[in-house]
Design goal:
single chain; about 375 residues; alpha/beta; Rossmann fold; 2 domains; 3-stranded antiparallel β-sheet; about 45% helix; about 15% strand
Amino acid sequence: MSRAADLLARVRLIRTNSIGPVTYRQLLLRFGSAEAALDALPDLATRGGGRPPAVCDVSVAQREIEQVSKLGARYLAIGEGLYPRALAEADGAPPLLIAKGDLGLFERPMIAIVGARNASAAASRFARQLAWDLGREDVVVVSGLARGIDTAAHDGAMETGTIGCAAGGIDIFYPPENEARQRRMFEVGVVLSETPPGYEPRARDFPRRNRIIAGLSAGTVVVEAAPRSGSLITARMAAEMGREVMAVPGSPLDQRAQGCNGLIREGATLVQNAAEVLEAVRPGAGGRVQSPTTQFQGPIPVAEPAADERARVEELLGPSPAPIDDLVRMSGLASGAVQLILLELDLAGRLDRHAGGQVSLRTG
């Protein structure tokens, strides 16, 4: 299959509404290619007791690919060499990224700096200086192109290397006042998105964006964060991925410091300068998360589960999330068989996937 045909199939697969990152990876591991996975969708969904998903139309996918090309951007596919290695190993990593800028930055150590949108002047100055100091140590600064701390971090690392993770399409400037900054990053940094060009971000897209920030980085530094803020979501995701979580302490009288102080109380590393950040993430790997690129070399042969085996797995499922490892252990079935049954239920619209490799049976 040509690279163009493979890319078209990958775009169609991930733009199909019922297919998320985990389902996508399971399909490619099972069938070896996006094209083979597309062919298998109707049968899999029927065996799971549902209707086949409405697959993204060829013309829609072709139009997106043309838009990406016109923007001077390119696709990065998980399992291929240009895809960031550390992100490829994170749960729920985007199967396709759209990137514009200097892709060589992915070969350098990466640290995320995130924080409050309504940041204080002192915190913004600190974040800008921290990013500058890290850049002088050959570290690439990752952030989310938001107001406040994100903006300060990008500015501090603009000349040494910064990566912006967008919640919307790569051609959408959000917030609008960051348009000039984002255009500059197209030239000297990198801007990443997992959504199609023209896509306007919604509230649910920002936590999804945050997992990319955490997944790219050896560690995440939080500079000012109110309780229950998006920055704390990024920190939690980083911790779940086994990455270093660091926080800058602040005054207990400032609500914007409560999130950071809480992280430190819960075990995050207290940092006050670039040297302490580097000390936390460089125990011997130079700040780089050494992870092999995931390769899809399937298909993986798995015998079709019998009716009683499917029933056994469904009986173990309920509305509360359960670890997949527990389903394997309690069902007595091979892991591949359980994963195939879950894949069928997922494509039939009867399964919900949760963080930490947990699943539940969809009700209603």
